[in-house]
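User: Can you write out an input/output pair for a complex, sequences first and structure second?

Assistant: Here is one pair. Inputs:
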Amino acid sequence: MGKINAAAVAQIESICARYKDEKTPLMMILSDIQNEYGYIPLEVQEIVSQHTGISVAEIYGVVTFYSFFSLTPKGKYVIGCCLGTACYVKGAQQVIDKFSELLHIKPGETTDDGLFTLDALRCIGACGIAPAVSINGKVYPKMTVSQVNEVIASYLISEEKGQEVTA
Amino acid sequence: MALINIKIEGISYQVEEGQTILEAAKKCGYEIPSLCTFNHGECNQGSCRVCLVEATGARGLVASCVYPISDGMEITISSPKAVEARRNSVELLLSDHNQNCQQCDKNGKCELLRVASITGSRELKFSGSHSETHLDTLAPGLVRDTSKCILCGRCIARCENAQGIGILGFENRGFDTFVSPAGDRSFADSPCIQCGQCVNVCPTGALMEHSEISLVDEAFKAGKHVIVQAAPAVRAALGEEFDYPIGTPVTGKMIAALRRLGFYRVYDVNFGADLTIMEEGTELLNRIKNGGVLPMITSCSPGWINYAEYNYGDLLPHLSSCKSPHQMQGAIIKSYWAKQNNLKPEDIFVVSVMPCIAKKFEKEREQLKVNDIPDVDAVITTRELARMIKRAGIVFDKLPDEEWDADIMGDYSGAGVIFGVTGGVMEAALRTVYYKLTGKEKDEITFTEVRGHEAGIREASLDIDGTTINVAMASGMRSAKILLDDIKDGKSKYHFIEIMGCPGGCINGGGQPYVRSCFLPNEDDDIMETYKEKRAQALYKEDEGRPIRQSHNNPQIKELYDKFLEEPNSHKAHELLHTTYEARVGFNEIAN
């Protein structure tokens, strides 16, 4: 547990304390940690286990069950490609494959520079604009394979300029 | 409980409400095949779909292990639709199952193979991908092979219920799901106490003890003097492997079998148990007299020692420094006995037959070596011994009753026998402590107030000649934790605590024969509730029948002290019979 600094331990403990009166606090605790740090490594799960009395194995099971939770740090930009039925029949597989090819990562992985994470999502409820891609909350409707390069480039350019991409 | 009317296969029955279809059907004389359910809802995931039946009022087929009965319900087990559905469920399980049954030690006791036979799953009609196999052979105690796992969740429930430590859990989702200690770690790299309770409930061969039969074979081949010692709880359960009713002691036949397997000497660990009582009793009295750390806690159960080292590092001074009985006896065999027989310790190979899986881990401990030589070289479980006996073509039932070897060591008292059940070490120690305090034997030898056979906590307060001794017994770590937290908070009023790793003590150890009502057609329906008591009674009966029932009256123990050890807790005794403990961190080698 040497890798986690005292400030982080204190913050995780305060997140656990937030839900101490809940009957089933685990999902809320993990959601907050995921939002705060972007991932939930085993060391952090141990701290949660000590404070909730829930076994590490069970916590690990929950973290690996829900795709929202991650064991490894996510990139600065999380590219979510919807592969729900509507998006899929409209060519979402080709879109995610193109992202994969250009970023040299498989779905679920993060680029070496820590900039991009590629995630395959199940239906995000945006079937009307299929195939849909969402990047850090910004939604790109009716994506095509030919637009993928352009979208990635827009993030790289703004990175160079040091500004955030806004909707 | 109110009675309600149901029909099974068109025949009317009155049954108690509040049961599942599976339970009610069993009481009416039907066995619906099932896999994931275990022991009255200890595990009830409804995940295997092997127990599907038709029931009125339900949409489609229902899983009878979780579906409750209701008044007027008509249940059909034998309809072609239900029969085919159950067969399909089993075939689906088999489609992602490692089918090298002939290589699997569970063969003959495998519940999956049994339901495959009952449902007529012969065609293997579903072929397709196989999920990734996770194999863990690093821990000395147990082996995990997910290629045989059916994801029933029994092991997860047992670890949580019995030990409260929840080492195992489901990981990932869908087809990628597997059961593992957190992070697909080995049992060796997690705070698993290697008690083997999970092995006892696994329906297939996914969780097994780490077999050491081949180590024994190698020792014989190398021409070593292979000496065997068997623990008390083994004799109370070994018979089950040879179709004797649960609770039948088979001491004499077991000795005969061990002799026919070629062991150079066949000793009872009870001699070691008597030795333990001499050392531990003396240690307790010294601690009481000299203001030592109290309460003192027993140290016979290696599962418990593992738990203490992982979770209560600051309480380790409370543990008795005594080695466990088979380690003590191993140390004596390789020192005193070896000298008497003009043998070098390195030419001796000591095999312990144990009801325990954690003993396999224990024997590897660095702290349990004398001059770099381990006290014990191999540990085999009750189940492994049964396999060796069957392998040798020995017809157990036709064996004569024989006696233990008793040259130099091997005589034992009734006190040693009851070590195998929760409260037994306590009672054995009290018999000797009573004598040491009063100078005379207790008229009524037994201390029935400390007896039991279930998990949980029992306590007693004894007045021995003006000295009050408060004692408590706990088995299973879920119960032990309560006593330990009290010690930590400074609230413990006890002088002496006995803790056993497995619920009920060694009679219910992780290496004992599997108890499954489906494989025990001649036992009563409530055998899952009564087997621990039956095994315990077998030991209490042997205690009653022993001519000597107190450890300090064992003549060979007296001789051992006179000729070799001098007196309990002497310098020599400390060197050979006592040990040390070390706090350990559970997840100390986190990868990533």
